[in-house]
Every structure is written in C-alpha cells, then in structure tokens.
Amino acid sequence: MKEHTGGCLCGAVRYAFTGEPRFVSLCHCTHCQKLSGGSYTINLLIQEQDFKQQGATALFEDSGDSGHPVQRHFCGDCGSHIFAKISSAPGKIVLKGGTLDHPNDFTPQAEIYTCRASEWLLPVEKTQRFDLGI
Ligand SMILES: [Zn+2]
Questions:
Q1: What is the span of the domain harbouring residue 91?
Q2: What is the pLDDT of residue 131?
Q3: What is the CATH number of the domain that holds 45?
Q4: What's the CA-to-centroid distance between 48 and ligand 1, angstroms?
Q5: Chain mean position to CA 58
Q6: Count of domains observed in the chain
Q7: Would the keyword Metal-binding be found if you checked this record's keyword annotation (predicted)?
Q8: 119 Cα: distance to centroid of ligand 1 (angstroms)
Q9: pLDDT score for 68
Q10: How many A from CA of 32 to the centre of ligand 1?
Q11: Tens of pLDDT along 22-72?
Q12: Å from CA of 115 to ligand 1 middle
C-alpha cells in the first residue's frame, strides 16, 4: 500500500500514513485562517491507526463550530499545524494537507465554510461548496 509522508517546516515532526483519505476538503473557517495565516486549509480525513508520527507535537485545545473540543497538534519549534483530532470523530485525524511532501497527490472534493471564504478567491472547479461544515 502506498505510503504518504510529510512534516513540519523545520523537520522536527515527520509523519507517514497508508491508505487513502476518506475525504479531502478545503476549509475557509476563521479558525483555519487564523491557525494557518492563509485563506483556508487543506484537510485530509484519515484513520488514526494508519498514521505514524515521529517527533512530539505541542497541543492547543480549540473548540469547533459545534462547540466540541478540537485538539490541534503543532510543531512546538516552528509552529506548523500538522493535524487535529475532533472529539466528535473518534479514531480519525484531520491532517493538514499543506504539510505533505507531495500535496498534489490529493485533490479536494469539497469546500466548506465558504461563507468565510476570501471574496477575491474563485471557487475551485469540481468541488462541492458548503456554506458551513458538513
Ligand atoms: Zn517544526
């Protein structure tokens, strides 16, 4: 099975996972804008059991739109956001696609929280758009 790899900006945190993501989306919510410093994040929903991490991550306890806790795992050295765990999706992790070594291996299927999308940003072709989360 193909292994996909990635890591943070400084290289202190590296990861690998096997299998294909269940879902790939772009998220335009304000939390993703703040945590990335950009307009949106790329999110791959993968099985936690398929994911192996090298190097410790720092943790930030956030809360999602639903009010449920979201554990955000960062590199404590360079600050790259690597993945999140959402309490309402046990056994899954939301991997930030910008940290992949080969981000073009995956194409987004949907855009979410488009109500917050940058007004100058065109819709991505062949994606479903959702005003809020799904
Ligand atoms: Zn780092």
A1: 3-129
A2: 93
A3: 2.170.150.70
A4: 21
A5: 16
A6: 1
A7: yes
A8: 31
A9: 85
A10: 18
A11: 999 999 999 999 999 999 999 999 999 999 999 999 999 999 777 789 999
A12: 31
